[in-house]
Amino acid sequence: MDCCDKSNEKPHFVIIGGGSAAFSAAINAVEYGARVTLINDGLPIGGTCVNVGCVPSKTLIRAAEVNHRSNHHGFDGIQSKSEVIDFKRIMEQKQEMVEELRQAKYLDVVADLPDFRRIEGRAKLVGPRTIAVNGEEIRADKLLVATGAQQFIPDIPGLTEVDFLTNESLFELESLPESLIVLGGRFIALESAQMFARLGTRVTILQRSSRILPTESPFLTDELTQLLTQEGIEIVTDVTIRQVKYDRHSIVVDTSIQGEPSQYRASHILVATGRRPNTRDMGLEEQGVALDRQEFIKVSETLETSAPGIYAAGDVLGEHMFVYTAAYEGKLAAINAMTEMETKRDYSSLPWVIFTDPQVAGVGLNEQQATELGIDVDVSTLAMTYVPRAIAARDTRGFIRLIRDRANDKLVGARILAPEGSELLMELTLAIKYGISVKDLISVFHPYLTLSESVKLAAIAFGKSVDKLSCCAT
Fold first, then answer.
1. Does residue 389 contact residue 453 with C-beta atoms inside 8 Å?
2. In CATH terms, is domain 7-151+276-338 a member of 3.50.50.60?
3. How many other CB atoms are found less than 10 A from the CB of residue 88?
4. How far is CA 231 from CA 58, 202, 234, 422, in A?
5. Separation CA 328–CA 146 (nearest Å)
6. 429-471, pLDDT tens digit by residue?
């Protein structure tokens, strides 16, 4: 070693994981003067998002949308038809994008990062901030666990005896399923169900709760259910699954629905019933890292675990399982670990999106949550039938719903069900984060014939009937 090499004087920050939280933490730790060792196992570098989550799902959702819209539009005088002629090529193109982004956004990013080492191998804690991997023991000054999560497989008789799909194996299919049963009714389940239905698969959703998206209001979920059903997706709720089995060339699901037996058949079955953390057999609890009942890691508001000097971030926390929150947490954990700062995490203006069509988007509280917190709320709901851009596009599905605090005229939440509704979300997120009043939202120019005008119209609707307004009137 060079006698002038000072690298060993730098604090050693070890990261277990290879996804968004891990890479965000690595980059920030280096900027704050650490030498970093990143240890990854399981999914390739990039973790869930780029490999089996956001990237593959959203490109396939868009492909399915192109196919669907070519066959379903509201314009007279235009005849168009689309069909899936090579599903395997669609999946190959998806994989090409995955590999390109994995290289560009992960591997290339750390290729020239100073004082950075990457190890492929299974890590296990064998002492206080001491990690064993590939026969080597590595000592960390500070440690971050960012190992993510994987599909939770429910204990259903017969399920493990059939060739079920998860969000990982779903994107490895080379032929389009003739029919698909989806177990679950939340983000992954709904996106996958509509995507495959629009590509030509007959889809049935079996949901244990009384509604899809059961934590959201019936006002939203009832309309989304209706829209998905109109596309031919069968949605069955209040389902208790008794057994899964093979019968000749079909997968059969025996159920009970409000006490009545029922049976569903399909060529394929997708399990989308939640996530479980990648924390098993890592030696975490032996080193003082507390887990909850579902084995997710417990952390403080600064993301430190119950073991001093060990932090956790991302899906392994089991809270906000989004790639952007993972990156935020990874950065925050690295800064708190490498400095004297004790910055607390803040999700008060966290936006989220479900990429169905129409999209479901939200930020802040819904009306029930606000009421439970003792906030006297006022709600404005604007149907997209009042939005000139939606009318011109001949697609007026959905609504925008704003929730404000009567006491100060400030928004506390919003819910959107609309085509490209996610693109409306950031104005509302900023309004909540920075306390912009409804009155101020109304006073801002919103270009005519944009979807963003719906925000202004919904704000106006707190005090006026928008059907009495002329174009562009306030």
1. yes
2. yes
3. 11
4. 19, 10, 9, 21
5. 12
6. 999 999 999 999 999 999 999 999 999 999 999 999 988 887 7
CA angle 151, 153, 156 (to 5 degrees): 160
Cis peptide before 358 (omega within 30 of 0): yes
Q: Domain segments of the chain: what residues?
A: 7-151+276-338, 159-273, 351-465
Q: Do domains 7-151+276-338 and 159-273 have the same CATH topology?
A: yes
Query: pTM for the full model?
Result: 0.94
* Rounded distance between C-alpha atoms, residue 309 and residue 103, angstroms: 31
Q: What angle do CA 313, 315, 320 make, to 5 degrees?
A: 95
For domain 159-273, give the CATH number: 3.50.50.60
pLDDT band at 473 (very low <50, low <70, confident <90, very high): low
What phi and psi, each to the nearest 5 degrees, are found at residue 55?
-65, -55
Provide the CATH topology of domain 351-465.
Enolase-like; domain 1 (3.30.390)
Q: What does the pLDDT average to over 376-397?
A: 96
In tens, the pLDDT along 118-174 reads 999 999 999 999 999 999 999 999 999 999 999 999 999 999 999 999 999 999 999
Both structure tokens of 302 = 């600064």
